[in-house]
Amino acid sequence: MKIGILGTGVVGQTIAEKLVQLGHQVMIGTRDKQTTLAKTGKDNFGRPALNEWLKNNSKVQLKTLSEAASSGEFIVNATSGTGSIDALKMAGENNLTNKILLDISNPLDFSKGMPPTLTICNTDSLAEQIQRTFPKTKVVKSLNTLTAMLMTNPGLLPEPTNIFLNGNDANAKEEVKKLLVSFGWKEKNIIDMGDITTARGTEQILPIWVRLWGTLQTPMFNFKIVVVGR
Amino acid sequence: MKIGILGTGVVGQTIAEKLVQLGHQVMIGTRDKQTTLAKTGKDNFGRPALNEWLKNNSKVQLKTLSEAASSGEFIVNATSGTGSIDALKMAGENNLTNKILLDISNPLDFSKGMPPTLTICNTDSLAEQIQRTFPKTKVVKSLNTLTAMLMTNPGLLPEPTNIFLNGNDANAKEEVKKLLVSFGWKEKNIIDMGDITTARGTEQILPIWVRLWGTLQTPMFNFKIVVVGR
To answer: How confident is the model at residue A163 (pLDDT cuts 50, 70, 90)?
Structure first.
């Protein structure tokens, strides 16, 4: 599949690496290729600059947001939540029309220090804002509830855990589910929460997630829903 | 221990039953004893009216909020979140001074239909509001992340799950931890998240909790935090 990833941070890179391993053709989109390529040193997560990363991931093509969205049959939103709507507008509404958009972003505001607050919550969610802004795009929220390395390597966790789907289009959710299964998720552990408004639940799990990161001193964890009688 | 429970709903009743079993002296407080005793039929959870319940739980003493708080050495807030501050004011600041208040309430607003929204979130929490309103009370938030029957019977779950503590006073958290252990929680599964502001995380887990209730068609579930390498 031709997949366009929007966002070149740790989430975009991690998803791109996995998709290339799985044999997909991957375009990763950034606002400004020159600026992105000019960066040197490590990022906040200790990852190499994109320039270095691209040398080790030569099958991934660096594109503008618009080019990545235009050439992708399937789109991944891996941008920072506070910039997602702008980035998707730069990608171009026409380039997103009738396509599935896997939305991994979280509306986290780090500008007032740690832990971050949410820019949207309670009666709305970023996923809903994206769906309202791009009504012809099939938005499916998933993977936003755990750290990037575990999104594509759930088997690193010592036991099965859960991942969630939120979206209005049943077929689009099925396609995302297939992708998640190819990442190593067991189908029975993927919980379809319902329509896109249910993303209010999965996005608002972030406030406990960021605090658990501090308490556990590691981001390498995930939630397992344990049910009586199952 | 003499324990005053504020709130006669399903949470107050369930906690009261367990505390009596454990040999504590339990006072359960309500705003207006006459009104509460006059209720008949089943409540929204299919539980008998308090009048009936008291016949089967004759060791529990029905009191006003103020009486229950005054005679309790340890206080439990089991009122609805939207009414908690008012109920605690009726209980009386002096009756709460220097005491531990186990806060189980959630700021859920059911007035606009299901699923409920939060009346407080993101940059504040109900637990913080209570702590600010009653600065001489040692507020510890816990047990608000699962259904009443599992609060006092964690062993009904098919495997160990987690419960959280939020509060400013380390000794108060230790006392609450002892109570939770007496309820059946394993000490290693009780996660101390930090000061009272960390209740923003545990209260904001409710939006996914209420939606999981719908998706799973049962409230009998809990969260387990699975960590790589542990």
So the answer is: very high
Q: What is the DSSP letter of A187?
A: G
Distance from CA of B3 to the nearest CA of A (A): 29
Peptide linkage before A115 cis (omega within 30 of 0): yes
A84/A80 Cα distance (integer angstroms): 6
Residue A7: exposure state from Cβ atoms within 10 A (0-12, 13-18, ≥19): buried
DSSP B197: G
Backbone angles phi, psi at A224, to 5 degrees: -120, 130
How far is B74 from chain A, CA to nearest CA, in Å? 27
Residue B124, judged by CB atoms within 10 A of its CB (0-12, 13-18, 19+), counts as middle
The DSSP secondary structure of A123-146, one letter per residue, reads S--HHHHHHHHSTTSEEEE-STTS
Task: Indicate the residue type of B150.
Answer: L
Residues 6+ away with beta carbon under 8 Å from B158: A226, A227, A228, A229, A230
Among the partner-chain residues A122, A157, A230, the one whose CB lies closest to the CB of B117 is: A122
Question: Chain B residue closest to A204 (CA)?
Answer: B204
Contact B158 A226 (CB under 8 A): yes
A223 touches chain B (CB under 8 A): yes
pLDDT above 90 covers a percentage of chain B that reads 96
Q: What does the block give as tokens for A224? A: 């397992």
Show which of residues 112-171 on chain A sit within 8 Å of chain B, judged by CB atoms.
Answer: 117-118, 121-123, 150, 156-159, 161, 164
The per-residue pLDDT of chain A, averaged, comes to: 97
ipTM over 0.90: yes
Looking only at the bridges linking them, the beta strands covering A74-77 and B100-103 are unpaired
Instruction: Give the pLDDT confidence score for residue B42 in this predicted structure.
Output: 87
What is the rounded average pLDDT of the residues B22-35? 96
Give the predicted TM-score (pTM) of the model.
0.96
